């Protein structure tokens, strides 16, 4: 591991909403084709980076930060750099993100595609404001760009953050965001990547789907956790997802105060398939990135020694009384 330069609250979810999400994911699992491809399995360890930053309501300022970090990461030998949710824009007023939302072929994303190409680096851009199905909604979209500047895949956040955080503020993401309905995994030189965004982290069935239906080896969790929820649950949830799926987890985080109304927890980290944190920044507020070499042979070793895929039981097989 190397370092480069450089969200205790109970959040109840309505049972009906949980059942709806589980049903959605089961349909996705049934409909999505399985893939046994394990890109990069036989290759050497890959150097990846996880960014921590404090995005603001200025597209140019955020791009300047992302560009600087990408170039610094390239100099450090990083081949895959992961940015947090809402990396390109965090507004201070309701509706601001709707105004700047664009299709994935728009000029904002084109700048980042050019950045990836110029830097010969894959980029994970989590939480882009993609233009939605109508003028009052957007998608919260995780975009994966390869080193030639092409969009390899995109994932629209399934679980929307509609909660009243104790001691904090009320968030209702669904007011201006439309939920996605498709589970996404994609092959890359760094393994088979499972794409998620922030609040998805609290729903383990999504990660089970990525691991056991889509054969993910690396889970990407770009986030902007609130300070209250991050202090309570951020690291423990990430470690749980790594352990129960036997995957690497790369979790890029927004950090600090974005404006007078919004603050994020920070703590960008990379976790190995045994649940060990192998990279993080020295504090939760710095803008910068941490670097780790991920070795897919470790994924296979953990899965061989602890073969949970062979031992899994399904609720359809269980008896109830």
Automatic annotation (TrEMBL):
Question: Which CDD domains has this protein been placed in?
Answer: nit
What's the superkingdom here? Eukaryota
The stretch of residues making up the signal peptide is: 1-17
List the InterPro entries hit by this protein, alphabetically: C-N_Hydrolase, C-N_Hydrolase_sf, Nit1/2_C-N_Hydrolase
Q: Which PROSITE patterns match?
A: CN_HYDROLASE (PS50263)
> Which SUPFAM superfamilies did the record assign?
Carbon-nitrogen hydrolase
- Where is the CN hydrolase domain positioned along the sequence? 46-296
* Record key words, sorted: Hydrolase, Signal
Q: Name one GO molecular function term.
A: hydrolase activity, acting on carbon-nitrogen (but not peptide) bonds, in linear amides
Identify this protein by name.
CN hydrolase domain-containing protein
Question: What species is this protein from?
Answer: Oryza brachyantha
Name the gene. LOC102702337
């Amino acid at each position: 591991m190397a370092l480069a330069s450089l969200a205790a609250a109970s959040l109840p979810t309505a049972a009906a909403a949980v059942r709806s999400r589980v049903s959605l994911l089961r349909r996705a699992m049934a409909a999505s084709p399985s893939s046994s491809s394990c890109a990069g399995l036989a290759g050497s360890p890959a150097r990846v980076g996880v960014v921590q930053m404090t995005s603001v309501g200025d597209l140019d300022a955020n791009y300047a930060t992302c560009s600087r970090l990408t170039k610094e990461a390239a100099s450090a030998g990083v081949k895959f750099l992961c940015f947090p949710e809402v990396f390109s824009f965090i507004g201070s007023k309701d509706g601001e993100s709707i105004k700047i939302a664009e299709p994935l072929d728009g000029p904002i994303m084109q700048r980042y595609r050019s950045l990836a190409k110029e830097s010969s680096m894959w980029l994970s851009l989590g939480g882009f404001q993609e233009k939605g199905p109508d003028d009052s909604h957007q998608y919260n979209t995780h975009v994966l760009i390869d080193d030639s500047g092409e969009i390899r895949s995109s994932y629209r956040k399934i679980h929307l953050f509609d909660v009243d955080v104790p001691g904090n503020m009320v968030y209702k993401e669904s007011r201006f965001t439309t939920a996605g309905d498709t589970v996404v995994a994609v092959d890359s030189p760094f393994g088979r990547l499972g794409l998620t965004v922030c609040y998805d982290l609290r729903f383990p069935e999504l990660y089970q789907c990525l691991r056991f239906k889509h054969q993910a080896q690396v889970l990407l969790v770009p986030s902007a956790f609130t300070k209250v929820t991050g202090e309570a649950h951020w690291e423990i949830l990430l470690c749980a997802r790594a352990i129960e799926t036997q995957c690497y987890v790369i979790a890029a985080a927004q950090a600090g105060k974005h404006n007078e109304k919004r603050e994020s927890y920070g703590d960008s980290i990379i976790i190995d398939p045994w649940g060990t944190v192998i990279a993080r920044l020295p504090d939760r507020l710095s803008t910068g990135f941490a670097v780790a070499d991920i070795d897919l042979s470790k994924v296979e070793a953990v899965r061989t020694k602890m073969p949970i895929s062979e031992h899994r039981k399904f609720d359809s097989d269980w008896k109830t009384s």
